[in-house]
C-alpha cells in the first residue's frame, strides 16, 4: 500500500505542476520555485511530516521535499544559533543535494553532447 500511496500523491503533485505549466504563463523555473516554496510553507505549518508518513517518497522526492529540507534546516539552525541560523540553516541542509546536482550534471555534460535547438 505504501507504493500506491507514494504513486498517487507524487502523481498528483506532478499533475498539478503540469497543469500550471500548460494552463498558465508560468515558466518551468517559476513552477519549480513555486513547488520549493510550497514545500517550505507546508513544513512551516507542521503539515509536511504527517503527509510524508502517509505518502512516503511521493511527497519527499518532488521539489516539495527540497523545500521541507531547507525549512527543517532553518528551524534547527535557529534553535542552535538564534537569528543567524535563519541564514545558515538552509545552506547547511541543502549543500549535499546541490553539490551532488552540480557534480553529476558536470559529469553528464562530459559524457553526452548537447544538441542545439534550432527553432
Topology summary:
Layout: H1 2-23, H2 28-44, H3 48-55, H4 57-60, H5 63-81, H6 85-111
Q: Explain this structure to me?
A:
There is one protein chain. The chain has 119 residues and is an all-alpha fold. It has one domain (2-111). It is 82% helix and 0% strand. It contains six helices and no strands. It has helices at 2-23, 28-44, 48-55, 57-60, 63-81, 85-111. The radius of gyration is 17 Å and the shape is globular. The model has no long low-confidence stretch (mean pLDDT 90).
Show unreliable segments.
none
Helix content: over 70%
How many helices? 6
What Rg, in angstroms, do the CA atoms define? 17 Å
Beta-strand portion reads: under 5%
Q: Biggest sheet, in brief?
A: none
What structural keywords apply?
119 residues; 6 helices; 0% strand
Give a quick rundown of the structure.
The protein is 82% helix and 0% strand.
Amino acid at each position: 500500500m505504501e507504493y500506491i500511496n507514494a504513486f498517487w500523491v507524487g502523481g498528483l503533485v506532478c499533475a498539478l505542476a503540469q497543469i500550471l505549466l500548460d494552463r498558465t504563463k508560468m515558466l518551468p523555473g517559476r513552477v519549480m520555485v513555486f513547488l520549493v516554496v510550497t514545500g517550505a510553507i507546508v513544513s512551516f505549518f507542521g503539515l509536511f511530516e504527517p503527509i510524508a508518513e502517509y505518502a512516503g517518497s511521493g511527497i519527499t522526492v518532488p521539489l516539495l521535499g527540497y523545500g521541507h529540507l531547507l525549512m527543517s534546516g532553518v528551524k534547527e539552525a535557529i534553535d542552535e544559533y538564534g537569528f543567524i541560523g535563519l541564514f545558515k540553516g538552509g545552506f547547511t541542509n541543502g549543500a549535499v543535494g546541490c553539490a551532488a546536482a552540480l557534480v553529476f550534471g558536470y559529469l553528464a555534460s562530459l559524457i553526452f553532447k548537447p544538441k542545439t535547438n534550432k527553432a
